[in-house]
Sequence to fold (134 residues):
Amino acid sequence: MLNHYLVGLPAFLAYFGVSIALLVAFAIVYTALTPHHEFALIKANKSAGAIAFGGSLLGFVLPLVSAISNSVSIMDCLLWGAVAFVVQILTFLSLRLFIRDLSQRIANDEIATGVFVAFASVAVGLLNAASMNY
Fold:
């Protein structure tokens, strides 16, 4: 009887594992590309760094959820997860074009800048997720 209820467990574990791996990879690449050091800012209790980083993570996860929901296979999910990955990285790089001293402002714990990065990341993530209705 229990086997009947757990028939989807292998698929769950596969999608969850791929998703966590993509999230960790995104966090590593994102923190390597940003001139400010998110984890050092968070350890120093600088809210702007935590807000901006948290928003970027959420902005990546939103389309990843859509990729999981709409994918027909793990490979399909992985490919669309990679699209979400690239879009979110490009979002931060684009924001740096509009606010040239963006990283310095975050490092200086300017909350408004952190909130702006977070909301812009989430906004792009939502648009990215909505576009993944293939």
The mean pLDDT is 95. The two ends are 35 Å apart (CA to CA). DSSP finds seven helices and no strands in the chain. Residues 70 and 95 are 29 Å apart (CA to CA).
